Amino acid sequence: MPFKRYVEIGRVALVNYGKDYGRLVVIVDVIDQNRALVDAPDMVRCQMNFKRLSLTDIKIDIKRVPKKKTLIEAMNAADVKNKWENSSWGRKLIVQKRRASLNDFDRFKIMLAKIKKGGVIRQELAKLKKQTAF
Fold first, then answer.
1. In the predicted model, what is the mean pLDDT of the chain?
2. Core vs surface per residue 67-103: b (16+ CB within 10 A) or e
3. Residue 19 gets which letter from DSSP?
């Protein structure tokens, strides 16, 4: 399977380090072999090292260094936020954030639910074993 995630103008990337950690950005220009100019609707355009970016499969159709308004319109037209939230990578990060925000009582309730679920599974498995034994 060939490589599909190229560094290109319009490629959506996830920031994996620094003050913008976890934010989706769009590459609007490539500065050199180590840095790109990135932008997002809720941030100031800045340069970022490629080591701080994780490229996604999502790409939007934009020109080099577009205006903020054009970028926002292109992101809305391409439905970037919805595509990201429906991807397995995006769903995984949403679950991680939700688990990290749980308090002690929520974790306790989840533990009780897992114990109850395990008990039901064990009972059903015992019934099936009993049926197949005869």
1. 95
2. eeeebeebbeebebeeebeeeeebeeeeeeeeeeeee
3. T
